[in-house]
Write a structure and sequence with these properties.
Oligomer: single chain
Number of helices: 27
Shape: globular
Largest sheet: 10 strands, mixed
Structural class: alpha+beta
Length: 930
């Protein structure tokens, strides 16, 4: 029986108050004792599993994925966790090592890497085998789990058996999470898991982006497999075998009563009688899951209506000519000072500004209204929290500032101590409990890989390593979404398509919920409604030149959520990927917008994936265009949403560049990314500066590159790259005000110390330079507004903040997980401040803003603004700067920044100190090649 004593290694989250009081009593041990015997899954007798012979990494491949591999918990384990903080085996054993790197990286050496990472070698040594399972009693597949982390190592003698084992292992580790997200993808989360405002917002965010019917989901499977020949047929067979494994585990856990306890707490199963069902998974569930992941991480673009609104505001403020010039300077389409992933000067023009725009459909002033999604609210669906969640979800869906995240540092063997390339890379996918990703090793006919996959899509490793190569990805964000203005006819629900009045297609979801043990939200319901056109779903209504229009968004991956399966299949195939060229060929089959990186023992490579549509001549991708044949994508077929796409050679790509860095920064010269903010200061600079310095010195090691990543992970981008210039203005004359002078001293000392948000010592929960950090956190928004709002005017300043938020500090609430998400400094006005302040100082600026804003360009007036806002900021208390939330008390700076594993199930984990780094991360250096 699990012990009934709390774990104290990590800072525990408090027990949610919604759990009944009897669950908090000491007598829980008696209750759990009665539940444990039928709820414990028996593992097969331990066997032996040696290290694989097909591993060319020489023990130099490592990985980490917090909080832990085990994301399933029985009812008994959930109750113990809620009351006493106990953890199921392998539920959080990767959280401590992951967190500890923040304090331990400065003295890291190669031989200590696996203190903070897992050994990612193939296979399991015989003395490290924790369990051996023959899933479903099959003889053609074995799942071995290691003692240290509980990762499943799946070995099959047949292709079917191998994929069956992958599905079984996925359900063992993430069944509840997989069930949650298949309902998210269908817009049915609240009916399944409860009506909490966060659940309402989540299902609305993703269903607005991909409002598919069951027939749509099936059609995508048919299309993806039919168009890919033998590989398509194999993918379909793999997916069916994978589903058989999932469903076998569902049946076994149901009859054995060791299924995830959340099914009881949400009312789907009865703990006493075992009544209720856990629905089997089907192929369309996989597409629903893929639509969520693609929308969250791999669909760059959108925001054209917001762009139009800010352009109109600029033209209203300055006149058409000057206003357009001002708008373009803030847009930074191709900023010459931007950090680049392909930095050898090669140009890859895409979505560039046309000489003369054609077909633009800018809205009439004041006419734009967002299309409602939610109707007929009842009960708790009508509360302020619920409507606020809806507003946030809509804003997140419609912005071009997608929270893609992820970073990569890759160094050529020419600059390493061993002569072999080194890579430290991984995706930032947020922090959840259980984690969205899961680790596995899969070995079978045509399959040989270890790494991470999104739960429910793990028939292949999606990010990880093969026999003699590793690969990873970051979100790229190039524009594959366009906005069309469809002219209405007859009424608000018909539109002109090639001159014919055509009815819109209405798709609906009605969800209702009632209180459960897990979610006490009062009963409620609502109906979601989306109108679809051949040009995509309707997102806004407006008038253009007095004509009533609907603005729709068309995404090249819309109705093609399953297509990328072929690329992932290739990445797992040791007979396909053997070189940089074959790697690039594989990822060309992935239609989502990602930057892909590769390293083997001799080469490195990069490729930017995505179905980039070929736009009609003269179309400016920044703004809405008329839904007319002349402005459609070339060769566009609305029946299949296919078009002509830019060739592979036009995508940023490279082999054996001296180094690559990526942190969602600009890919290459002339390659326009959809989000704003790719300017002179970007978080990519935090990697660029460190890696460039390492490469110049030579002799790079795995630990040195890991230290560079970890140091950047604690850096405050504003303090490292912008604050020194702000202080230069402030210090341009003696600072006589005592309060301002004290603040300047603290900020200067922090910059000298490295501008990091780092604890005084491991576990202290107090930052070094805490006062300086507080001052900058308070100063930045005050300073930006005082610097720019007077010159831009209130309307234009507000419009620009809708295009690009001014700040994204670690304590800020942003993205799908809100606050405590780790990822920071992706979007903000740091480049604008940098360029403006340098211009005021008289320093050279490439691609500068159209005007000088701070103090109207006067150094003394700018200094006065900075000192005035600095004094105000310095006078704000910690409680005012960090007001507290459901995790932290007001004034707790460390806690405000801290990372929380957001609970998607019943198991809670402790907070860890802030780090801005990938969730899943690899450190690799191959010693040989096949």
């Amino acid at each position: 029986m699990p012990r009934c004593t709390p774990r104290t290694t990590l800072d525990r989250l408090r027990t949610p108050r919604r759990f009944p009081k009897f669950l908090k009593a000491a007598s829980i041990c008696v209750l759990v004792a009665g539940l444990l015997s039928p709820l414990t899954q028996a593992a097969a007798a331990g066997g032996t599993a040696g290290l694989a012979a097909n591993d060319y990494c020489g023990g130099q491949c490592s990985d980490i994925l917090p909080p832990g591999e085990n994301g399933n918990a029985t009812l008994a384990q959930i109750l113990l966790n809620q009351v006493f903080g106990t953890q199921p085996d392998h539920a959080e054993d990767q959280l401590g090592p992951y967190s500890n790197l923040a304090a331990g990286y400065s003295t890291l050496t190669d031989d200590k890497i696996n203190t903070f990472f897992n050994d990612a070698s193939f296979g399991v040594a015989s003395d490290q085998v924790a369990s051996t399972t023959k899933p479903g009693g099959r003889t053609d597949v074995t799942i071995v789990r290691d003692k240290k982390s509980g990762v499943p190592h799946i070995t099959g003698t047949t292709r079917y058996g191998t994929e069956y084992g992958a599905g079984y292992a996925a359900a063992q580790d993430r069944l509840w999470l997989m069930d949650v997200f298949r309902h998210v993808g269908r817009g049915q989360l609240t009916s399944f898991a409860g009506g909490a405002p966060s659940n309402q917002g989540l299902e609305q965010e993703f269903w607005r982006n991909a409002p598919y019917t069951e027939a749509d989901l099936q059609a995508q499977i048919d299309s993806a497999t039919a168009n890919a020949g033998a590989r398509g047929a194999q993918a379909l067979a793999d997916a069916n075998a994978y589903l058989d494994g999932i469903n076998s585990y569902i049946d076994a856990s149901d009859s054995g009563r060791y299924f995830p306890g959340e099914y009881v707490l949400t009312g789907h199963k009865d703990a006493i009688t075992n009544a209720g069902t856990i629905d089997h998974f089907k192929l369309t569930d996989l597409v629903a899951l893929a639509s969520v992941i693609g929308a969250l991480f791999g669909s760059g673009g959108g925001g054209e209506v917001n762009n139009a609104l800010s352009l109109l505001a600029a033209q209203s403020q300055y006149g058409v000519t000057e206003g357009t010039k001002v708008w373009e300077s803030f847009r930074e389409r191709n900023d010459p000072e931007a950090a680049l992933t392909v930095h050898d000067g090669e140009s890859f023009p895409y979505a560039t500004k046309p000489d003369t725009a054609q077909g633009e459909a800018l809205p009439d002033a004041g006419s734009v209204a967002q299309e409602p999604l939610v109707y007929d609210r009842t009960g708790s669906a009508g509360t302020a929290k619920a409507t606020g969640a809806s507003a946030t979800a809509a804003a997140t869906t419609l912005t071009s500032a997608k929270r893609g995240m992820s970073n990569a540092l890759v160094v050529s063997g020419k600059a390493t101590a061993s002569g072999h390339p080194i890579a430290v890379f991984g995706p930032q996918t947020g922090y959840f409990a259980p984690q969205l990703l899961m680790l596995q090793e899969i070995q079978g006919p045509g399959l040989s890989a270890r790494g991470a996959s999104f739960a429910g899509l793990s028939m292949y490793v999606e990010l990880g390593r093969g026999q003699d190569y590793s690969w990873s990805a970051t979100t790229s964000g190039q524009d594959i979404i366009d906005t069309y203005a469809v002219e209405l006819c007859q009424d608000d629900y018909h539109y002109l398509y090639h001159g014919t009045c055509t009815a819109m297609d209405k798709v609906e979801r009605t969800n209702s919920w009632k209180p459960t043990t897990a979610d006490g939200t009062a009963a409620g319901s609502y109906r979601m409604q989306v109108y679809r056109t051949k040009y995509g779903p309707v997102e806004y209504r407006a008038t253009v030149g007095g004509k009533k229009v609907a603005y729709t968004t068309l995404r090249s991956s819309y109705m093609h959520e399953a297509d990328s399966i072929i690329g992932f299949q290739m990445l797992n195939d040791p007979d396909y990927v053997k070189s940089p060229g074959t790697f690039q060929s594989a990822v060309q089959h992935i239609n989502y917008t990602f930057n892909w990186f590769y390293a083997d023992s001799a080469h490195t490579a990069y490729y930017n994936s995505g179905d980039n549509p070929v736009r009609a001549s003269g179309v400016d991708a920044e703004f809405p265009v008329w839904a007319q044949a002349a402005y459609e994508w070339q060769n566009w077929d609305p029946a299949t949403n296919t078009a002509a796409y830019t060739p592979a050679s036009a995508h940023p790509n490279s082999v054996d560049q001296d180094y690559y860095i990526s942190w969602n920064n600009k890919q290459a010269k002339d390659y326009t990314s959809a989000p704003w903010g790719d300017g002179s200061v970007h978080r990519g600079n935090l990697l660029e500066d460190r890696v460039k310095k390492l490469v110049a010195a030579g002799g790079v090691t795995r630990s040195a590159l890991t230290r560079a990543m970890a140091d950047a992970a604690l850096a405050d981008l504003r303090a490292e790259d912008v604050l020194p210039k702000l202080l230069q203005v402030v210090k341009s004359s003696p600072v006589t005000d005592t309060a301002a002078a004290a603040a300047v001293t603290k900020l200067s000392d922090w910059v000298t110390a490295g501008a990091r948000r780092k604890e005084t010592s491991a576990g202290s929960k107090t930052y070094a330079n805490a006062d300086a950090i507080r001052i900058l956190d308070a100063w930045w928004p005050l300073m930006v507004k005082a610097e720019f709002a007077p010159g831009l005017g209130t309307d234009l300043y507000t419009a620009f903040t809708a295009n690009l938020p001014i700040d994204e500090s670690p304590s800020a609430a942003h993205g799908p997980t809100g606050a405590h998400a780790g990822s920071s400094f992706q979007y903000g006005w740091w480049s604008y401040v940098d360029k403006d302040i340098r211009a005021v100082l008289g320093q050279p600026v490439q691609g500068g803003l159209a005007q000088k804003y701070c103090g109207g360009g006067s150094l003394s007036a700018c200094r006065d603004i900075l000192i005035s806002t600095l004094k105000t900021a310095a006078g704000l208390t910690a409680a005012q700067v960090y007001p507290g939330d459901d995790q932290c008390s007001a004034g707790d700076q460390w806690c405000a920044d801290s990372i929380v594993q957001r609970a998607l199930g019943g198991i809670k984990h402790g907070r860890i100190t802030w780090q801005n780094r990938p969730t899943y991360q690899q450190v690799v250096e191959y010693t040989s090649h096949r």
